[in-house]
Design goal:
heterodimer, A: alpha+beta, Uridine Diphospho-n-acetylenolpyruvylglucosamine Reductase, domain 2, Enolase-like, domain 1, five-stranded antiparallel β-sheet, 12 helices, 12 strands, about 30% helix, globular, B: alpha+beta, Ubiquitin-like (UB roll), DNA polymerase, domain 1, five-stranded mixed β-sheet, 6 helices, Xanthine dehydrogenase YagS FAD-binding subunit (chain A), Diverse_Substr_Oxidored (chain A)
Chain lengths: ~325, ~180
């Protein structure tokens, strides 16, 4: 690991100033410390955020939540308002990592974690995300985890987060602050598609710090579900995952929120499927045709073609399950 | 600035310690290499195996991914701080009674993890196998124990007896809670 200076500010202003000329923010460390050790990333100055007052979860007057970026995954998962009003957020969190890691990992760090593409994590192989211009080893290599939506010829990596999938389904906003002040980013605008700049995961400017995630109220999210499909029962990243909230009245879909994980460079909000479902009968056939419309743009390769039917079947199963749980 | 040492204070198994460290040093390496605390083990050093699990301020964490500088002031408990050879912690005794190990290398991490895991379950923390995540009462089935301990690998494969050992202690806790309420 390359030597770095270490700073531990106690105010946001101090942290932003310390990071302004090339500092690297450190939160839970579960991703960054490993990357520093492996040489995937280098830092000249680490700005430790753990002493900043960003670890609160507060309720907004409208029933929404403000989640500080320093809130640990385990605290967010166990929060009474999260587990009752947005159960798929808790389900996503407890489907990720291990008990130890959830005690360390933070909300802000979860948003900004890097892909688990095996080539990105192996500094001996070409990777456009790690080393721009070096090529993509995954396009014709081990492709089981590759993206099926929105990939480019330069990068086929997927976003690894579980938490981000329900956050994409909700109309979440991310509050950030940087050298030029504070701004709010719609969750769908935070993460990028790879295009020809796969080294950039997000639209954050250098030195910007995530302060909070704001979740607006959504009454029918009390009936929501996160389903993760992976290659072992626990402690593994998703092949694909589905976050859904469904509002059914008299057998008709009044409203729906649907997002997919493991399919794209960013958490994928399934807006085509949502639009296809609003006002339609809440039946497995409708669910199937809606998600097939969403997956019309899918461009899988040889090794990840299974993801298309896997997403389809998982979505149909999750939505059908939510329908069965609803009042007549 | 790079390369400057930082002063780190840790309470380790009840004893206050202070050490000047390169900021790259993890809690794991500070304990073993700087403070001579060998009860914490280095397995993968990547956050994948759980061998380095310690309890910090009541919570289980992976000491291999924790920079010591970031944990300045923390109260760290390793397996050696849970009990003594004469007075084993109930979890340590249960691991011995149930033969919940073979080579023993993962055991300190397993024991620390299990002790903190039971606290999490007692506090009502949900898990991936909880039938209803809004339910704050945890029914600690074998499936729950396995899920909650999935961050601790045992390459000897002593899992069956590890689950039994943890259930022995969890059962004692239930009995104690029941006795208190009666």
């Amino acid at each position: 690991m390359k030597p770095f200076a270490y700073e531990r500010p106690t105010t946001v202003e101090e942290a932003v100033a310390l990071a302004a000329d090339g500092g690297t923010y450190l939160a839970g460390g579960t991703n960054l410390v490993d990357h520093l050790r492996l040489g995937i990333r280098e830092a000249d100055r680490l700005v430790d955020l753990t002493r900043l007052p960003l670890d609160e979860i507060t309720e907004r007057a409208d029933g929404g939540l403000v989640i500080g970026s320093g809130v640990r995954n385990s605290d967010l998962a166990a929060h009474p308002l999260v587990r009752t009003r947005f159960p798929f957020v808790t389900q996503a969190l407890v489907a990720g990592a291990s008990g130890q890691l959830r005690n360390m990992a933070t909300t802000g760090g979860n948003l900004l974690q890097r892909t688990r593409c095996v080539y990105f994590q192996d500094p001996t192989t070409p990777c456009n995300k790690r080393e721009p211009g070096s090529g993509c080893s995954a396009v014709e290599g081990f492709g089981r985890y590759n993206a099926i939506l929105g990939a480019s010829e330069d990068c086929v990596a997927t976003h690894p987060s579980d938490l981000c999938v329900p956050l994409a389904a909700l109309d979440t906003e991310v509050v950030v602050v940087g050298p030029s002040g504070e701004r709010r980013i719609a969750f769908g605008d935070l993460h990028r598609l790879p295009g020809d700049r796969p080294d950039l995961d997000t639209t954050l400017d250098p030195g910007e710090l995530v302060l909070a995630v704001e979740v607006p109220p959504l009454d029918f999210a009390v009936r929501s579900r996160y389903r993760k499909v992976r290659e072992r029962a626990s402690y593994a990243f998703a092949l694909v995952s589905v976050a859904a909230a469904l509002d059914v009245h008299d057998g008709t879909v009044r409203d729906v929120r649907l997002a997919l994980g493991g399919v794209s460079h960013r958490p994928h909000r399934a807006r085509i499927a949502e639009e296809a479902l609003r006002g339609r009968p809440a039946t497995p056939d409708q669910f199937r045709s809606a998600i097939e419309a969403e997956l019309g743009a899918a461009s899988p390769g040889e090794h990840n073609a299974f993801k298309v039917p896997l997403v389809r079947n998982t979505v149909v199963d999750v939505l059908t399950g939510l329908t069965e749980g609803s009042a007549a | 600035m790079a390369g400057h040492e930082v002063s780190v204070r840790l309470t380790v198994d009840g004893t206050a310690r202070q050490v000047d460290l390169d900021p790259r040093v993890t809690v794991l390496d500070a304990l073993r290499d700087e403070l001579g605390v060998m009860s914490v083990k280095k397995g993968c050093d990547h956050g994948q195996c759980g061998a380095c699990t310690v309890i910090v301020d009541g919570r289980r964490i992976l000491s291999c991914l924790a920079l010591a500088a970031s944990y300045d002031g923390a109260d760290v408990t390793t397996a050696a701080g849970l009990g003594t050879t004469d007075h084993l912690n109930p979890m340590q005794q249960a691991f011995a009674d149930r033969d919940a190990l073979q080579c023993g290398y993962c055991t300190p991490g397993q024991v620390c993890s299990a002790v903190a895991m039971l606290e999490e379950a007692r506090a009502g923390m949900p898990s991936h196998v909880s039938p209803d995540v809004s339910d704050t009462t945890v029914d600690l089935t074998d499936a729950e124990v396995r899920e909650r301990m999935s961050g601790n690998l045992c390459r000897c494969g002593a899992y069956v007896n590890i689950v039994r050992a943890i259930q022995d202690v969890a059962g004692q806790d239930v009995a104690r809670a029941g006795g208190g309420a009666a």
